[in-house]
Every structure is written in structure tokens, then in C-alpha cells.
User: Which sequence fits this backbone?
């Protein structure tokens, strides 16, 4: 420990035993939840997937925190979602919910009075209602269209019965919903960046097309261009290379500083770009992740510092190793 504290050995062992007991109890609850999942869970997945609107999560107390987290997780993985607190719903926030939405409530007992108004609202306006609970036969369970039952496991704190094991299961169930839905929707890592552009993960999910240099910045010469022309193009664009294209505009080669040095003794300036170029340069599509461009430059071809971006075989951009550094992926 950085700041050591004198602790009686017996008390230390007691605390560790109690903590490990809590973790093991909650782990056992998650195992039972995994085994208990059935067709009702699948029905909820399909209900949300096919809904024309959003999925609205709600709860009260500790369950509200879990519901809010579930909404945030689904929203960041491609499923439109929001959170409405059960208490606030009775004071105007039900106006956020439309007949195109699906409502998912979290309530261990299924008897949470603050959720009754929201349940009645769903029944009145024929809004699909799902409930995650340990008591499927409860009042809210009878009002719901779909009930996903949680195993009846004891809470970790037998003294207060504070929500611990039950909220852990709810949180895991919310994560399971998000993951299954994103797979059903064909959600990809690159799509996640659209909803999460900030932070380390956002940087790692940048696409090549988002950072590439294009248009007038793109160094290109035709194969018939003189070496002198190629050198001017390399110097003016500042990437240390230039792409070489054929008459159809297809990328057929690349001229680098290394190519210039290798042909220095062979009447360099009397040759054309096509005569000194390296054929079949490594390329990448604009939709690929920037991390893949970095891999191709540093692992597959460790001696290159720039890679051309192509659409088919036509060059549309270029990415330099420095672009990866600036984006924080190198």
C-alpha cells in the first residue's frame, strides 16, 4: 500500500472473507441468471429491434441508476434509448414517451408504487411494456406485455437487504440486451465512433477517411511524368513520396526517397516516374479503421511512412504515420 495503515490481522482476514463472500454470491446470481434466460428475453430483444421509436428505461431508487446506465449503453451501441425516472414520469415526463416507443421497467418487487402511473399510461395508450423483476406475478408483472424474470437470490447484505445482488443482475441483463441488439443490427466497431467520438476509444475507432489528406494535398503524377516532375510533387506535398497513375487514373506505383536513391547512378533525371517506381504499393480503403492503416505501415511494411487510400484502385487520399500520431492511435 502507498499509505500503509496498521490493521489487526484478524480484522483484515474477516473483511477479506466478507468481501469475497459478496463477490461470490453475486457471481453465483449471474450464473443463475444466465441459465434462467428464456424466450421472454428473446421476445424483448425483437420488440426493441422492431420498434419504430426508442426504448425508454425506467426505475426508482437503485433500480433507476441501473435503468439509466442501460439506456446509455444501448444508445452508444446503435439502439435509440433514453431514461425516464419513475417518479418524474408522474409529473410530466410521460410526455417524453410516444406510442412508437417501448418501455422497459426495472423493479425487483414489481410493486413499486412510483411506477404504477407509468404502467397505466402504457396500457392506456397501447405502448409495449416490459418488466425486469424477481416477481413476475406482481402488479407490474400483470400489466406488462413481457416479463423477464430474475432468479430469486438473496441480497449480499442480509442485515439491510439493500439492493446488491438484484441490481448486479439487472445491470448484467442490460448489458446482455445491448450486446445482442448490436449484433442483430450488424453494428460494427467503426459505427461506435459515430456515437463516441471523444476519448481514447473514440480515437482508436477513427476511420482512414476521416483523417486522410485528399484533393490538392494528394501527391500524384502520371507514369509518363519525368523524375524531375515527380521530385517537385514529392517536395511540394511533403509526404516523402508520390503516387503514380496510369491513363485510367489507377494507382500503379509509388515513388519514394528510397526509389530516387536506388536509381541515382542510372541517369535518374532522364527517366520517367514509371521507370523508377515501386509497383503495387500497399493501399487501404477509406472505411477501414486508422489503426489498420497504422498496422499496415508498421507491421506489414515496417519501412513505409505513408499509405495511399483508394476507392477500388483509384487513389483518393493519403495517410502519413504522423497523422496516426496526431490522432493518438500510435
Assistant:
Amino acid at each position: 500500500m502507498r499509505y500503509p495503515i496498521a490493521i489487526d490481522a484478524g480484522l483484515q482476514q474477516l473483511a477479506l472473507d466478507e468481501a469475497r463472500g459478496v463477490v461470490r454470491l453475486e457471481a453465483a446470481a449471474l450464473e443463475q441468471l444466465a441459465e434462467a434466460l428464456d424466450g421472454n428475453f428473446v421476445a424483448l430483444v425483437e420488440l426493441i429491434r422492431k420498434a419504430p421509436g426508442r426504448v425508454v428505461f425506467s426505475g426508482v431508487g437503485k433500480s433507476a441508476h441501473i435503468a439509466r446506465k442501460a439506456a446509455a449503453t444501448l444508445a452508444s451501441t446503435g439502439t435509440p434509448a433514453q431514461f425516464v425516472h419513475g417518479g418524474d414520469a408522474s409529473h410530466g415526463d410521460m410526455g417524453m414517451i410516444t406510442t412508437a416507443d417501448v418501455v422497459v421497467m426495472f423493479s425487483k418487487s414489481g410493486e413499486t408504487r412510483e411506477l404504477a402511473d407509468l404502467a397505466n399510461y402504457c396500457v392506456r395508450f397501447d405502448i409495449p411494456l416490459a418488466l425486469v423483476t424477481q416477481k413476475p406475478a406482481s402488479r407490474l408483472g400483470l400489466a406488462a406485455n413481457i416479463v423477464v424474470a430474475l432468479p430469486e437470490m438473496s441480497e449480499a447484505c442480509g442485515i439491510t437487504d439493500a439492493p446488491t445482488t438484484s441490481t448486479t443482475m439487472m445491470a448484467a441483463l442490460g448489458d446482455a440486451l445491448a450486446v445482442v441488439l448490436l449484433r442483430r443490427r450488424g453494428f460494427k466497431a467503426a459505427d461506435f465512433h459515430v456515437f463516441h467520438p471523444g476519448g481514447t476509444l473514440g480515437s482508436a475507432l477513427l476511420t482512414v477517411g476521416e483523417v486522410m489528406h485528399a484533393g490538392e494535398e494528394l501527391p500524384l503524377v502520371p507514369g509518363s511524368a519525368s523524375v524531375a516532375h515527380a521530385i517537385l510533387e514529392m517536395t511540394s506535398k511533403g509526404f516523402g513520396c508520390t503516387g503514380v497513375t496510369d491513363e485510367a487514373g489507377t494507382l500503379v506505383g509509388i515513388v519514394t526517397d528510397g526509389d530516387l536513391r536506388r536509381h541515382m547512378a542510372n541517369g535518374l533525371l532522364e527517366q520517367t516516374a514509371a521507370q523508377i517506381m515501386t509497383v503495387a504499393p500497399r493501399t487501404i480503403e477509406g472505411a477501414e479503421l486508422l489503426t489498420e492503416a497504422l498496422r499496415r505501415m508498421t507491421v506489414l511494411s515496417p519501412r513505409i511512412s505513408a499509405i495511399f487510400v483508394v476507392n477500388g484502385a483509384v487513389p483518393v487520399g493519403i495517410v502519413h504515420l504522423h497523422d496516426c500520431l496526431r490522432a493518438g492511435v500510435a
About this structure: The chain has two domains: 9-187, 208-327. The chain has a mean pLDDT of 90. The chain is about 45% helix and 15% strand.
